[in-house]
């Protein structure tokens, strides 16, 4: 529902820095703090192949990495945004002070909370000129609805994540205001799908987006959705 | 997206059996097979309090259990529907024969795949006369979106599960065709919300439903949604 502006902003900073030829740490203050602290906590980027990725997912990944070579597409890194890893802006703007610290210390990003291969395996690529993202997604066995197929909620989750990222990069801190999803066909568990998202228009603080979910070979249209996202004022609390 | 007709049918059988005074095993052939087999696999009902439930969730649970005493409401049991535990009808109707058995052997219901307290803690109550369900839901720290708040996908998942159950009991085997969700306010992580779902109308094979997601004290409206579900023919394969 709420887009991680930390991740989006960090990604943007990294992208901008890369274009400007800066070093990774110089591009990203959060990363820099981590790299040069005594803790030496280097976050793991989960948007990279691991042994659980199927041949289909690896093939698509390689195709998009090739498209990244001329700079038209960018692979977006992805981290578990644990409480202890979040940046200062979230601390001041968004955190519910009443929440028990114990619970928050266990918190992790919903889409990155599984062991490799069991849950959401995905990577998102962004095309800045076309204001669109492509998310390659393999839904693991822990995301089951009816036996043999993905749970509708898991599809909705990945749609929210993919469309939301497409909104967060141009929009900054955004919140999902509406998701309207048409489920056309069930998605077999452990298969690979491609989620194409695009920014259709911006009206004031509103960003209108749409997406399709198709099979790896693009022959089957599994779902389509629209999303409305609202730009937030980082100075205001959410609750 | 697809409603577990096994769970819904099993629940219905159990409810009918209970009303008719039959023994638990006699009410439910699947349960009976399990109870009287040499394996003695008794599934765990997850829709019951565990130590991770907050005071708010326990209080609401007790209130609804009291409403169940006169038979107007029923608590719906909830199981991890693993591959090895599913009933024969799914094997023949829905299973993708191309799926690797290894992957399926790990499969588990998306909403029941977490250790107690970390993910989806919920219980659904059903009122047959009013054709509505109430889902009491506590979203754990593994369902985080922006730090401190539930991921929109986790909310969508619980809406799909709650509204879907409200459709599956009168509708039998149903599939989510559309979910349209308005996210009005972010939901603090580890708080308790109440999802009220109701069947609005049936037109042929289409079931139209709606729901609201409110805080435990009902003062805050977090989300509202509509759902369209389609009755499926159990004789036809889904893929």
Summarize the structure.
2 copies of one chain form a homodimer. With 239 residues, chain A is of the alpha+beta class.
Describe this structure in words.
Two copies of one chain form a homodimer. Chain A has helices spanning 5-19, 24-27, 29-36, 55-68, 88-93, 101-105, 152-171, and strands at 74-76, 120-127, 132-139, 174-183, 192-203, 206-215, 221-231. The two termini of chain A are 14 Å apart. Chain A is of the alpha+beta class and 239 residues long. Chain A has a seven-stranded antiparallel sheet. The model of chain A is unreliable at 4-9, 11-37 and 82-97 (pLDDT under 50). Chain A is built from seven helices and seven strands, in the order ααααβααββαββββ. Chains A and B meet through α7 and β4 of A and α7 and β4 of B. β4 (174-183) of chain A pairs antiparallel with β4 (174-183) of chain B.
Give the topology:
2 copies of one chain form a homodimer.
Chain A: H1 5-19, H2 24-27, H3 29-36, H4 55-68, E1 74-76, H5 88-93, H6 101-105, E2 120-127, E3 132-139, H7 152-171, E4 174-183, E5 192-203, E6 206-215, E7 221-231
Antiparallel strand pairs in A: 1-2, 2-3, 3-5, 4-7, 5-6, 6-7
Q: What's the order of the H and E elements of chain A? A: HHHHEHHEEHEEEE
- Write down the overall mean pLDDT of chain A: 82
The percent of residues in helical segments of chain A reads 25-40%
Count of individual beta strands of chain A: 7
What class do helices, strands and sheet pairing of chain A give? alpha+beta
Low-pLDDT residue spans of chain A: 4-9, 11-37, 82-97
Oligomeric description of these chains: homodimer
Q: Which pair of chains has the greatest number of interface residues, and how are they split between the two chains?
A: A-B, 66 and 65 residues
Biggest β-sheet description of chain A: 7 strands, antiparallel
Rough outline of chain A = globular
State the helix count of chain A: 7
What is the CA-based Rg of chain A, rounded? Answer: 18 Å
- Fraction of residues in β-strands of chain A: 25-35%
Cα separation of the termini of chain A: 14 Å
The side-by-side strand order for the widest beta sheet of chain A comes to 1-2-3-5-6-7-4
């Amino acid at each position: 529902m709420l887009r991680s502006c930390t991740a989006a902003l960090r990604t943007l900073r990294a992208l901008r820095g890369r274009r400007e030829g800066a070093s990774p740490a110089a591009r990203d203050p959060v990363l820099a703090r981590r790299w040069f602290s005594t803790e030496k906590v280097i976050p793991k980027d989960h948007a990279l192949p691991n042994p659980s990725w199927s041949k289909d997912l690896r093939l698509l990944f390689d195709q998009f990495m090739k498209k990244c070579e001329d700079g038209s597409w960018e692979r977006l890194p992805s981290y578990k945004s644990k409480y202890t890893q979040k940046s200062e802006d979230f601390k001041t703007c968004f955190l519910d002070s009443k929440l028990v610290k114990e619970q928050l210390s266990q918190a992790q990003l919903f889409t990155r909370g599984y062991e490799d291969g069991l849950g959401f395996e995905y990577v998102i690529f962004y095309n800045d000129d076309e204001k669109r993202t492509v998310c390659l997604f393999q839904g693991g066995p822990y995301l089951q609805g009816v036996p043999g197929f993905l749970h509708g909620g898991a599809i909705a989750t990945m749609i929210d994540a993919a469309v939301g990222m497409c909104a967060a990069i141009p929009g900054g801190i955004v919140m999902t205001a509406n998701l309207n999803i048409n489920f056309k066909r069930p998605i077999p568990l452990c298969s690979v799908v491609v989620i194409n998202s695009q920014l259709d228009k911006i009206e004031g603080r509103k960003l209108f987006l749409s997406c399709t979910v198709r099979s790896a070979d693009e022959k089957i249209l599994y779902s389509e959705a629209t999303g409305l996202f609202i730009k937030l004022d980082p100075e205001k609390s959410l609750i």
